[in-house]
Amino acid sequence: xxxxxxxxxxxxxxxxxxxxxxxxxxxxxxxxxxxxxxxxxxxxxxxxxxxxxxxxxxxxxxxxxxxxxxxxxxxxxxxxxxxxxxxxxxxxxxxxxxxxxxxxxxxxxxxxxxxxxxxxxxxxxxxxxxxxxxxxxxxxxxxxxxxxxxxx
Length: 152
Description:
alpha/beta; elongated
């Protein structure tokens, strides 16, 4: 193999590696919610425990994906997890809607479920959903069952 054949092979391999890296970066950015969809608006919700969700977690309404969790941080004053998420543009949620951390099953992942309210007033960009419910810990439920806590 001549020196020019070797350099052409190295250039080809390098181009393939760079292309694979770019595809991987794009996929990661899309699946983790790193990019902000221009056809959506942001809302916030505060949870006692945000266990099971992270940036990139799906937001669903009636089982249909309508958004993504984009940010999570701890409020040092209330010790609650403040979660920011997007909802697709054009979806007008009543201001008394609720957000629940739901699970797909015993071994499935978690997602944010939006439960629409009945108010005639709608939530706008950056507003907070007040009615929230944290995830139910399967370990805590099993411990209660085994130890008999909670029985009267």
